[in-house]
Request: fold
Amino acid sequence: MIPRELAAFLSQSAERYPVVTLTGPRQSGKTTLCRHLFAGKPYLSLEAPDIRRFAIEDPRGFLAELPEGAILDEIQRAPELPSYLQVLVDDDPRPGRFILTGSQQFELMRGISQSLAGRTAVLRLLPLTLGELAVAGLAPPTLAQTLLTGFYPRIYDQGLDPAQTLADYFATYVERDLRQLAAIQDLLTFERFVKLCAGRVGQLLNLASLASDAGIAASTARHWLELLQASYIVFLLPPWLANTTKRLVKSPKLYFYDVGLACWLLDLRTPEQVGRDPLLGGLVENLVIADVMKRRFNRGEIGSLYFYRDAKGLEVDLLIPSGRQFHAVEIKAGATVSPDYFTELSRFAASFPETVASRQIVYGGEAGQTRGGITVLPWQEAASALPVA
Reply:
């Protein structure tokens, strides 16, 4: 098992709360991590039809067989169960009794917030970070290969072919998760919609354009995008709306939780294809922003990340909250540092001098430097040197 950065925070949470809820994409390593950390607890997967039926039809009887608690995997498959857990943990609030996992964040969180508010810690485990791969000695040798491979643990644990594994992942997602979340009749159109999302990675979300290109209504596009968010396929990066007289862009940007899946959806299969692709810049943005998000979740940070763009074209790719200030980050795919890389960060600092805690550039090269108060980081060092809070 690849050591996970979240392990320490997960263990601490189990010492403080009677229930710990761990959510994240399928195959991000939730079950492996929980069974490793809580090896003495019974493990029951609600994906198994007989176990799920027992939990749904006789929840009191089901939980009566688990007096010392258990790991309950895919808890959203028995949506009424958290209400019965509430009664149990109110009567016996010993910490760490139940460890819940789930891969559908909106359905899961609805049940948790209604029944277990104040009784459970909620953590998120996303696919591997750059740092976890480096510590395990499994990091791909180049930026293009890293983008292509993505970060799902099974690919590295078992030495699997990324293209085939991601193809299987997406097929399983469409055939299983979608049928649990919604009845989508035209799966081919939905798959085209997801590929169109990949073609907009790192770009401002324009639902009308996305719907038009997919040949669906705007309301359908909105619903399908919500499904992709609920099942940890995509996320939206909101803009920072500063208290200013400037006209600001208010649309979010679209990214994938796993950049390897985005590459697969774009039909990129070799590092050479990735390096030549016109979306390379957006893919590198996706890599860095998702990595910062993972590292924040692994430390228990839950505040939003942002980007900035105004009507005059000033843009900063990533703003990482630090108290009432931000670490401002520009992300560049190029392997050579250009003077142009510094322009936006300098303009942003001049516009918001009290807001900027630090300024960094992450780029596709190998040598770091500091120039004019701006730190330049090679992409491999973003995992350790880029601040996350």
